Amino acid sequence: MARPVPDPVRPGQESVWDYPRPPRVERERRRVQIDFGGTRIVDTDDVVRVLETSHPPVYYVPIAAFAVALTLGQGASFCEFKGAARYFDVHGGGGAVAERAAWNYPRPMPGYEVLHDRVAVYAGPMDAVVLGGETVEPQPGGFYGGWVTSDLAGPFKGVPGSMGW
Q1: What is the CATH number for 80?
Q2: Residues with Cβ < 8 Å from 117, sequence gap 6 or more?
Q3: What is the pLDDT of residues 72-86, one digit of tens each?
């Protein structure tokens, strides 16, 4: 499949088509707040993001930033760059549980060591995920965990027909 035509980039935006492959990890200055089950479960400015061609950034926060328990979930996956991932069930207020709604790399590959004690969260199952004051949208498709914000230009991997991107 041919690479799609990138969307026009408006002032203040960055194109996901300018992101590198292999992915790059960098510090993020914006605060992350996550609400689930009517409870704020994460509120931190200790954030890194992973940038990869065609994907909205994936944001990782310290496991210790969670005000609620994460329990080991079912299954695993593998990234050719970051290594083997494990999944977590996210617990929120009122007994809410989102199965496999977060993941991390317990033994990341060289170059991605900063992800060791960090967790990424799928935005879709949460009540709200806020990045720097903006409520994010989940990356299309359900498998990938990027967060779509107004400062990004796509199209984003995960939309129908994007499997070969």
Answers
A1: 2.170.150.40
A2: 62, 63, 64, 104
A3: 999 999 999 999 999
